[in-house]
């Protein structure tokens, strides 16, 4: 992929990518597609740098590690209102009646799926009229259909469902462009990136090529409705094993907020048994079931069921879990 990013050949790749993104998400003409670098962490800063200038204030719905980090970053650039008080441990999404939103906020921000805690929004939050909704979809982008017209901006790193690491897909409504804070770096300025068709500097060309191919695959497989159907089937297989294990496996997330992408659980009781969990990971690896160790901040086990994981893969994990439970439940 040592193509010039300004060459005709790479231009075709960009055109193909934008076409399939717009088709899969039904993106209207008044939204711009930006290909940026820095991952989700870069967008923690880019969002307030570009959007908070309208009122100097923003609302953050904090339901896990990543939205918490985003709120902390945004506080460097304006006043951040936490929509509800910080909860002790993230095990779900607090009832809407407890939320306090500022109708003068420049935007409302949330993370659709928290990979660390296994918490996922099943519905798009309602926000005050006229306040743009911003969403980090890094870990469930293109895993289900959604109405993009309800958002001012959505973004996601490619490395979960839509490609390899190195590129971040931002989709932003045009009326939100053009008012960055004076300190906004040029490379994070949405309006400049839009004006330059994401070619201000050399983009991650190979990662962009991979993203285009992956999204063409998703379309060929049946689109986002099919990705959603598979996600429900895959996650239900694992949750059914957990719920049917008589406490040997435990999932701390309330059922209505359980993630379809990241199933987190403990082995050997609600708080987990360290020796059993190590044995689980080692035995799973011997069966070719990899990357099941939970995030370092919370421990336990995490099964990530992104689009590329097949139903057959998940059935293998479910069968292993049943066998491991039978052999170790005593």
Features:
single chain; 330 residues; alpha/beta; seven-stranded mixed sheet; three-stranded antiparallel sheet; 12 strands; 35% helix; globular
Distance between the termini: 54 Å
Shape: globular
Give the beta-strand count: 12
Order of strands, widest sheet: 1-9-8-7-4-2-3
Q: What is the arithmetic mean of pLDDT?
A: 96
Provide the gyration radius in Å: 21 Å
**Which percent range describes the beta-strand content?**
5-15%
Helicity level: 25-40%
Return the string of H and E elements.
HEHEHEEEEEEEHHHEEHEH
Judged by helices, strands and strand pairing, the structural class is alpha/beta
Question: Main beta sheet, described?
Answer: 7 strands, mixed
Low-confidence stretches: none
Count of DSSP H/I helices: 8
Overview of the molecule:
The chain is of the alpha/beta class and 330 residues long. The chain contains 8 helices and 12 strands. The chain has helices spanning 8-25, 39-51, 65-74, 190-195, 205-221, 223-243, 274-286, 311-328, and strands at residues 31-36, 57-60, 79-82, 108-111, 113-114, 119-120, 133-136, 153-157, 168-173, 249-250, 262-267, 301-304. The strands form 3 sheets. The protein has a 7-stranded mixed beta sheet.
Topology:
Elements: H1 8-25, E1 31-36, H2 39-51, E2 57-60, H3 65-74, E3 79-82, E4 108-111, E5 113-114, E6 119-120, E7 133-136, E8 153-157, E9 168-173, H4 190-195, H5 205-221, H6 223-243, E10 249-250, E11 262-267, H7 274-286, E12 301-304, H8 311-328
Parallel strand pairs: 2-3, 2-4, 4-7, 7-8
Antiparallel strand pairs: 1-9, 5-6, 8-9, 10-11, 11-12
Helix pairs in contact: 1-5, 2-3, 5-6, 6-8
